[in-house]
Amino acid sequence: MLVKKTYKNQITLPKALAGRFPGIDYFEAEENETGYLILKPVKMTAATGSNAEIVKAKIKKLGIDEKDIEKAIEWARKK
Hints:
about 35% helix, two-stranded antiparallel sheet, Pemi-like Protein 1, Chain: D, alpha+beta
């Protein structure tokens, strides 16, 4: 199947080909050793927890409290 690259370096998969990958919106792209472009379907999954929750958990694990954060901010602002 013929695929054209646009001036924005985008390609559109032909409907017949895209239909073979229901529910897939992302593809891993790589070039093989013979110069061919390989697209591998990627199923994206949601991360466990939001970024804020992950940061809060890390701060708690490290034993950092509000006073430590205030001191760090003061130190950074003096520079």
